Amino acid sequence: MKTRPPPGRSVSSGLTEPVVPASITLNSMTPFIGHVADPDDIEQHAREANVGVSIAIDRGGTFCDVIAKVPDREPIVFKLLSEDPANYADAPTEAIRRVLETTEGRSIPVGEKLDGSGIGKSGYSDNDKHMTDHFKASCRIGTTVGTNALLEHKGEKFAFVATKGFKDVCVIGDQTRPKLFALDVKKADALHQSVIEVDERITVEDYDLNPTPMDKQAALDDPDLVRTRSGEIIRVLKSIDAKQVRDQLLELKSQGYTSLAIALLHSYLYPDHEKAVETIAREVGFQYVTISSEASPVIKYLRRSISVCSEAYLYPVIRRYVENFESGFRVLPQRVEFMCSDGGLKQAQKFRGNEALLSGPAGGVVGIAQSCYDRNEGTPLIGFDMGGTSTDVCRYDGKYDHLTESRIAERTIAVPMLNIQTVAAGGGSVLFARNGLLVVGPESAGAFPGPASYRKGGPLTVTDANLFLGRLDLSSFPAIFGKNADEPLDTEIVKKKFQEMTDDFNAQTSQSLSPEELAAGFLNVANETMSRPIRNTTEARGYAPEGHNLVSFGGAGGQHACSIADKLGIKRILIHKWSSLLSAYGISQAQLQYEAAEPHSGDLTDLEILAVESKLEILKQKVRRELIDQGASDKSIQYDESLSLRYFGTDTNLVISKPLDGDYAAAFISEHLREFAFNLERKIVIDSLQIRGIGSAGALIQEAPPTEALQRAQAEGKKAVATERQKVYVDGAWCDVDMIRLAKAEKGTIVDGPALILDATQTIFVEPRFRGYILPDHVVIDMFDPLAQLKETVEEKFSPIQLSIFAHRFMSIAEQMGNTLQRTAISTSIRERLDFSCAIFSPDGQLVANAPHIPIHLGSMQMAIQSQHRHWLGKLRSGDVVMTNHPEWGGTHLPDITVITPVFVNDQIAFYTASRGHHTDIGKH
């Protein structure tokens, strides 16, 4: 392992110290003019110039975004390519070099080892109102290194250690098929290259559904029984054979393995066997050893195994990346921290593999929270981050929304992460006309060949549609396109391709659309696609989208924000001045975080809560020690205690933070009712308890939300002055619209749509019925006629564009039906094997839309609905529900029960919803 340069101390690099040219003048220092400066003096002055510098870096897939804060100066903000091997080896290191060049006022050659001693060293007084009370500055990084390693299969070679009989658990997986209708099924490969089985076994003697509950006190007289930390009792059926394990590990070591993932049955309750194997592995000489009881201490062996394998696969990659980054310094910054998937920071030496998976996107969630949330007003936010290939969506209501597991690269990783929904739709999404419908993505043009306008033979994309309709300013793009990267965007090829596609589409559908109508239709479909994850984040969880503000960020978000807000009934859009690099801004504002969790088994009663509180106090001290060790001040740490609760016999856990009145049961019942629209008459069970600590790590105090500045602008009513105009296709016609450049616009002025607002990194399209306000730190866009969308008449003639949009909307409803059914299911077949299907049917029972569920169900469900429709014709009333499994009436096999619900409008059936699933979901057990 490489030696880590200590912060604040020089480490010999073996290079000659640089000499500053005679004519250079150093910022904030005494100029050295007319002679060659002494290298020691140069170094001293450079350190003084860098005191108080704080750098936040988001290394994304395409660009590396940088925000540097310097005392008594404007922030330094810029972008550079994440990969540019011809000019630099590592983007974050290059970003820091450029910042230091600016602060030191001298040229620093690329590749020279940097002196970061001033970075992270306080340059502020203790009474400075703009800073927190501890570690006023640092170097913070969000990175896609872990995500890329997982997606591109470039992780560490490692071996998996499993309980005997379970060596193929990760290979078998959970039987899910991401592309259910694909004939060529390709499962995700297991991450490990080799596996050994440990001949050990424990079993849980006491469990929820045991028909003959055991006497726990009497059972402990048996020497083979152990009461675990959760309170459950396990039996050690077979202990490990240390010699046998050592021999197996030595054989692996001889094959060149240095990384090991260990997952044994029930280790979340009884980790002793895993720890014993870990001890032997370290004695044998394995460099990286990860055990599931620490990496993912949760029930469910498969997910725990996949999670520990992911950690063993990624952790060595992360360690090498951190070491390579640090090797670029002669003197390290005072603090180097990395952004974690849960929205918190970790010191570089404690940063692990799974924590890196959502490192960059997590910064965006923190960014919207810190820049746009008004705690006095309390309106929740929806974050909308539209990039080139995908769009990320998140929600913030004053607290960060964490998930206990997330699906990444076709693998379910059971570690705490922020709830970020992603859809494969972005500026580079390819446009298709298929079977008379308009389709956007999921294929992307990528960086190469890129959109058609990039002059590299690419297909039509969402970006091309915006360009074709005038929603982008051609002059704002540099001449970096084409074969020699020296030409502007090509508008002619875009016009030609849209004309060709329109001619083909009209010929197939007997329509007479213009190229502009087709392009506008594609944008409409794209906006509907990007609205789906927002509905899944809000409506599917019992929140009304119209009760939120939409925060748009990412390079392409401003072009679509108004349309998406319109579709969802959202009346206000917030765009921060650094929206195109908001993840980097969020990283600059993040805090140290640490979560400790422990399994628990018991009913939710007042007596049980006393035992829980005792355990939480122990966890609290563990969290406190960890955060203080990472540099947080004791008085800055805040704690969030929570319990993971579920109804007895079910498998859907809700994490409930400690209520103000301490009534967990009432809070759980209310949350369950909001999210699933029903409650069960069952007792509530505690599965685990956790405590999250948040400690100050030097973020600036949250900046003021735009509320006051907006009120002033509304009161003054001053219109922004446009010096340019551009033709834009709006509502079926070309019209001249104002173009406002933010750099020149007066703050506190109003922009009525349609209009374009431009800055150096993005274009904001203000649509008709929207009004924009240009404020000092934000652009706020309000829908000033929210009822207009309800006044519009819907064409009753056939429209392939409307059909494409409603196909997306109906499928979204069917998907939400499936998500709710899976999460509330008691049946293992539905919950784990996904043996269910959901769909929407017309008033006479014909299939309208379905989610991608089970083909055998979907193929015959229409007959089941039509048969029941004919049988009950004129007899069904609102609130009726029909259940059937009749083999002659569209049933598949007897265990599959179809539940049919007619939906009435004005006493007439408007449509049917139906779901079909395994019959063990019926009844008490």
From TrEMBL:
Species annotation: Neocucurbitaria cava
Any one GO BP annotation for this protein: glutathione metabolic process
Domain spans labelled Hydantoinase/oxoprolinase N-terminal: 55-285
GO cellular component, one term: cytosol
Signal peptide start-end: none
Protein name: 5-oxoprolinase
Hydantoinase A/oxoprolinase domain mapped to chain residues: 306-595
Database matches in InterPro entries: ACX-like_C (IPR049517), Hydant_A_N (IPR008040), Hydantoinase_A (IPR002821), Hydantoinase_B (IPR003692), Oxoprolinase-like (IPR045079)
Single annotated GO MF: 5-oxoprolinase (ATP-hydrolyzing) activity
Record-annotated Acetophenone carboxylase-like C-terminal domain positions: 614-773
Domain Hydantoinase B/oxoprolinase: 800-923
Family listed: Belongs to the oxoprolinase family.
